[in-house]
Amino acid sequence: MIENQMRDFRIKKLEELKNLKLEIYGRRFLKTNISEVKEEGNFKIAGRIMSIRAHGNASFADIVDSTGKIQVYFRKDIIGKENYEIFKKIDIGDIIGLEGEVFKTKTGEKTILVKNFTILSKSLRPLPEKWHGLRDVEIRFRKRYLDLIMNESVKDIFKKRVEILRYIREFLNSKGFVEVETPMMHPIPGGAEARPFITYHNSLDIELYLRIAPELYLKKLLVGNFEKIYEINRSFRNEGISTLHNPEFTMLELYSAYGDYEEMIEITEGLICFLSDKIFGSNTFEYQGKKIDLTSPWKKIKYTDIFKEIGISNFRDEKIVDKKIEEYNIEIENDDTIFDKLEKIFKKKIQPLLINPTFIVGYPVEISPLAKIAKDDPTITERFELFIGGIEIANAYSELNDPIEQLKRFEEKFKDVDDKKKKIDYDFIEALEYGMPPAGGLGIGIDRLVMLFTNSCSIREVIFFPLLKPKNE
RNA sequence: GGGCCGCUAGCUCACCAGGCAGAGCACCGCCCUUUUAAGGCGGGGGUAGCAGGUUCGAGUCCUGCGCGGCCUACCA
Predict the structure, then answer these.
(1) DSSP secondary-structure letter at A114?
(2) Residue whose C-alpha is closest to residue A292's, from A350, A358, A355
(3) Which one of A89, A205, A395, A399 has the largest count of C-beta atoms within 10 Å of its C-beta?
(4) Beta-carbon neighbour count of residue A176 at 10 Å?
């Protein structure tokens, strides 16, 4: 614990106040929201003191609560000598409750003339400086509460995040989807390709994995006759951290029985346009200086065609792909498959150009182990990924519901893995064998969606407490 | 994992020509009953991220480490 002079002063004031038999860390306080204080009348409010302008026997202070800010005025001749002495021991950062009459100052500012007040919480540490606020990025993330107190725009981002989540639920509920919860601790990590976090259950004596995706459990619910379901919650991936990746992140997954990926396109467009309308009142907005237009219908490009456009006539021809890798000066790993290489070309050359919403459709079956193959081409799947502002936002497909085909895909995927029996989720296959209806499935990265709608350049700006290394003092 | 940048008072930042470590806000004391970046006078506060090295002398130069940011890579 860091001790410093300013904290000592505040501890001293705290002791002095306690000696007056005052309860400094208070209790329930019935109050009016500051935003609801009228132009005249008597009001009880509570909040944090953000500044004090003392004038000897009278003082102004600014008080904020979650709804707004208001000036209050303490006068010795109104509250009395003893109470004014107590007021003088109040510091910036303290939380107080007060009651008083609204009036207008000479300059016309709405102000509450305090009749009585009570300290509800004493702050022992000084807040960051009032003009510049808190800028240090590391402190902003480690002590997000200070960031939220000091930086209005940060608070606005998180308020908007809350709104977006509420509107997503509103939209999906109105379409007959029900919200469900499935396990976050999985005996076998599935539904995506990432490395999992490993944990351990003591009394069962088993290893468990924090889920990398809820997909397989949600599909078991389709088997269980749920038809339209969604889950909005955390997934965990033990991978690198970047402006687009936090180890724990929030994903929406949605399944619609008897639907397909075309239906998912409709839902995705509908949902994101609905959100844009609610947030901006418009279907255009700006992201990082780029104008984004959500006017329907959104562009669709076939996976094969994007590579044809840059001269890869057959994306399964490794020689052509290798030539492009060299031409674009892209670094590759020894164990990169042709699809890894294609992905790298896509990320470097195509993705940054996908500013307006664009569906890339028809991904190869090799990299889509849970998706149904296209009707007219067994090498590709009924699948899309959605890009907006150069960011991957969504991934969806017609769900593979053929258990024999699904098992084959798993076996193919894990053919080079030693203990593939441990990797393949036979419970899931068994569920499919009871019969899963054809279905469309969709995953949307909620954090990234919030980034778009709040014009944030990093995922850390839209997650209250992004993961940082602990700092030893 | 690699590259670049940052780390100085509670906060925001100077000082970098190697020569006593500074400012504003915040804080403490005094004055002040309509201020709002209130004002006036006086004052306190520092292991310059950490550890080494070079030097008569290091916040400043060098090396290593830590934490963070950006880029890159990994990762659908």
Answers:
(1) E
(2) A355
(3) A399
(4) 9
Q: Is there contact between A366 and strand B, defined as CB under 7 Å from any strand atom? A: no
CATH number of the domain residue A369 falls in? 3.30.930.10
From the Cβ of A109, is strand B under 7 Å away? yes
CA dist A143 and A140 (Å) reads 5
Total number of domains in chain A = 2
- Tell if A239 CB is < 7 Å from nucleic strand B: yes
What are the 10-residue block averages of pLDDT along chain A, 473 residues in total?
A: 76 94 95 97 98 97 97 97 96 98 96 98 94 93 96 95 97 98 94 91 95 97 98 94 94 97 97 97 94 96 92 90 88 85 91 95 94 95 96 96 96 78 89 98 97 96 93 64
Residue A316 lies in a domain: no
Cα–Cα distance for residue pair A13/A124, rounded to 1 Å: 10
Q: What is the ipTM of this complex?
A: 0.93
A298: tokens are 């959104």
Q: Which token pair is A266?
A: 């409709």
Compute the distance between CA of residue A102 and CA of residue A110 in angstroms, rounded to an integer.
Answer: 7
Residue A15 domain flag: yes
Q: What is the CATH number of the domain that holds A36?
A: 2.40.50.140
* Residue A407 CB partners (closer than 8 Å, separation 6+): A424, A429
Distance in angstroms (rounded) separating the CA atoms of residues A431 and A411: 17
| Residues across chain A | 473
Check if the beta carbon of residue A381 is closer than 8 Å to that of residue A363: yes
Residues 154-183 of A with CB under 7 A from strand B: none
Strand partners of residue A114: A100
Nucleotide nearest A383, from its CA to each C1': B76
Q: Is residue A133 part of a domain?
A: no
Q: How far apart are CA A225 and CA A338, in angstroms?
A: 39
| Residue numbers in A 248-307, CB below 7 Å of strand B | none
The CA–CA distances, whole Å, from A116 to A26, A32, A41, A76, A98 equal 15, 15, 15, 11, 6
Residue A342 within any structural domain of the chain:
no
Separation of alpha carbons A321 and A313, rounded Å: 9
Domain range for A439 is 149-298+356-461
Whether the Cβ atoms of residue A72 and residue A63 lie closer than 8 Å to each other: yes
Examine the domain organization and report whether A262 and A378 are in the same domain.
yes
Residues A387 and A282 grouped into a single domain:
yes
CA torsion through residues A102, A126, A96, A138, sign: positive
Region of A311 please: left (phi>0), alpha (psi -120 to 50) or beta: left
Residue A303, classed as helix, strand or coil, is: helix
Within 7 Å: CB of A110 and strand B? no
